[in-house]
Amino acid sequence: MSKPPRMTDKQKLGLFGEELVVRMCSCPRCKRSKTLKRLGPNFKCADVICDFCGYLAQVKTTKKSSVERIPSEIAGAAWKPHNERMSAGIYFPLFLVLVNECDQRNYAIYYLSADLQNAGMFQPRNPLQKGAGREGWIGFRYKLNSIKTSFVQLATGPSTKASTSALANVVSPVSGRLPTRTPTSQPR
After folding, report:
1. Residue 36: CB partners within 8 Å, gap ≥ 6?
2. Per-residue pLDDT reduced to its tens digit, 33-88
3. 166 within 8 A of 23, measured Cβ to Cβ
4. Cα-to-chain-centroid distance, residue 69
5. Where are the domains of the chain?
6. Which CATH class is domain 9-167?
7. Structure pTM?
8. What are the CA-CA distances from residue 33 to residues 53, 109, 139, 156 (Å)?
């Protein structure tokens, strides 16, 4: 029997963010709770789906010193499939999960709808160099400066004084600890 591949710290952080979104956020389209589900690891351009209405969204998770400020840029994913969809006029909504770099229980979940996105906010990166695990692979970065005010905050960590029942099964794959806060609001 072979061992499952080990996850990198970035993959663990991404999984943590996806699990937070699934547990804490209602579907922005149909407004139902507990219907967002994680997609498989190689599903192109989307990380979660609503199992009621089929809504798809991307989830990006990053560590920052402050979870109250949207960063100027974040890493995206593979450029080619994303660019093909943009060329067809297809944009995916974005859940942005910011996790405090010193305390993973301090986090915030933000949302950016697809209709507020534009091609200028996506910048392809240089291809990976020879010797890299995926030589020639091209990713992209989200450039967020022009749309920072368009994000809606959906949930926060320690600043919310509520029960932890919504997080009963979300245990951090990085620290093994349970986050201790619940949602603040849902998108309209």
Report:
1. 21, 22, 25, 26, 27, 48, 49, 50, 51, 57
2. 999 999 988 899 999 999 999 999 999 999 999 999 999 999 999 999 999 999 99
3. yes
4. 15
5. 9-167
6. alpha beta
7. 0.81
8. 12, 16, 32, 17
